[in-house]
Amino acid sequence: MDKLSSSCNSGKEQAVPKHLLVDHAPVAMYTCDPSGRITFYNRAAAELWGREPEINQDLWCGSWKAYYPDGSTMSPEECPMAKVLRQQMTIMQAEVTIERPEYLAYTAPHWPLHGI
Questions:
Q1: CA distance 55 to 59
Q2: How many helices (H) and strands (E) would you count in the chain?
Q3: Residue 67: other Cβ atoms inside 10 A
C-alpha cells in the first residue's frame, strides 16, 4: 500500500499534502511559468508523454511530438498551453494527438485551460 492510500484509508484524520494528491491523481496535469517553461508535472503526465521533461527547461508541453486532428504537425509554440499563456485566453476544448518517444500516438483531449 502506498503512502497516499494508507493515509486515506487509515481511519484517522490525517492531512495529505496537496502535492501528493496531485502527483498521484489519475489525470495528467502540468504547469508552466509565464514564459512557457514546464515547472511541474505529475506521474500521469509523464506516463502519457512517455518521458519526463526537464523542469524549467522544456517548453509548453512534455510530449515528444504533437499533431492537429487532421494529422498536420503542431509545433510546441502552437500547442494549447502556449496559446493560453501567450494570448492570456481560455481554451474550452482542443484535441491534440501526441507522439511518445517510442512512436505511439495517443489523442489527448484538453480540458479547459485558463490564462493568467
A1: 9
A2: 4, 6
A3: 17
Number of Cβ within a 10 Å radius of residue 28: 16
pLDDT in tens, 43-77: 999 999 999 999 999 999 999 999 999 999 999 99
The C-alpha R_g of the chain, in whole angstroms, comes to 16
Which three cell numbers mark 54?
526537464
CA distance 4 to 39: 23
pTM: 0.72
> Which residue's entry shows cell 474550452?
92
Q: Distance (Å, rounded) from C-alpha 99 to C-alpha 55? A: 20
Query: By the 8 A CB rule, do 115 and 84 touch?
Result: yes
Burial of residue 37 (CB within 10 Å: 0-12, 13-18, 19+) is middle
d(CA 8, CA 111): 27
Q: What is the rounded CA–CA span in Å between residue 40 and residue 30?
A: 5
